[in-house]
Amino acid sequence: MSSEGFLKEVQDIGAKFLHKLQKLPSAEPVEIASFFVVLLFIGDWTLLPGLEFSHTCCFI
């Protein structure tokens, strides 16, 4: 994949995410809950490796 194609993909994902955030105040409670569960899952998978690495480096 070229860098232009990757940049286009990232922009498309960002636009979809922004669109979801803008629709969130008028969304149904189930949709709001599922959106936050997905955000928590993504945050979990991005933060945990960094925390594990810093914990391992500090105690060696």
Automatic annotation (TrEMBL):
Coiled coil: none annotated. It is found in: Membrane. The keyword Aminoacyl-tRNA synthetase does not apply. It holds the Pfam family SMIM5_18_22. GO terms for cellular component: membrane. It comes from the Eukaryota. Keywords: Membrane, Transmembrane, Transmembrane helix. It is a single-pass membrane protein. InterPro entries: SMIM5, SMIM5/18/22. PANTHER family: SMALL INTEGRAL MEMBRANE PROTEIN 5 (PTHR37344). This is Small integral membrane protein 5. It comes from Zosterops lateralis melanops.
